């Protein structure tokens, strides 16, 4: 349950109009108030200090919008400032509440982190409470991309999920899956992967061969005795050249193995 409430009966909406600068309690008895002086904005902090807010770069003709939500999932509300950036994207700056300090601090995204993501700035933020992850969405061309962040014990963000687009299209490959969602651990290691369609739904692949052996690795010499048959439907987890990593749910439980596309489609030829 969030530890905050609006002051003086003001109903806080996810995005507030310019005339409704937020006034709220990040925790009981601690007050915060956004103030405007000319073209500058300040945050009156619970500890009595006043912090000048950094407005993201975007469309200069548009006034900033403010949102009060728990972006780092610590049970305390935080403050976000957004401005339109282009036709469909927005740029965000986030100020996280630090209860031990009784003040807000700007969420600075490390350059080494932002070099690895799709959205080069925080954009179209959506907290996902079930995953305890902060999703940032941006559109490039016809597709929306996303990156998701989690926060460590110190409150620092780390990359939890991201979309990876493959650019190694092989026109001779029988199938090609261009977009994969990668899940990472706090050390940056990929711990899960799955192919997605244009609507971010998991993709499947149907075995075309009468008998297709499963491999432990994307190598011929790693073939096991297990096999799939024509018509078996698998979730696509990864692709390396002419190899697919698949998940198949058998009667004994799910299997995650590799299959050779060359073998699959060579057998399928009439």
From TrEMBL:
Listed InterPro entries: FG-GAP (IPR013517), XAC2610_dom (IPR058087)
Keyword rRNA processing set for record: no
Tree of life domain: Bacteria
Signal peptide stretch: 1-19
Protein name: FG-GAP repeat protein
Keywords associated with the record: Signal
